[in-house]
Amino acid sequence: MNPIQKLLKMMDWQDANRPLKVEEKAELMKLTDIDFEERLHQIAVDFRNDGVIRA
Hints:
By secondary structure, the chain is mostly helical. The chain has helices at about 5-15, 20-30, 35-50.
């Protein structure tokens, strides 16, 4: 997945979930494709479970 695809995926994710912090976006951009998908999912699960935004 190229950087543009990751950015588009993050934008779609934010529309469906919550805005990502700049730090989260930077962290996500450094990850491999598989880790990127898993981390996005984990952020959503954490937020839905307790409503807390973790850095």
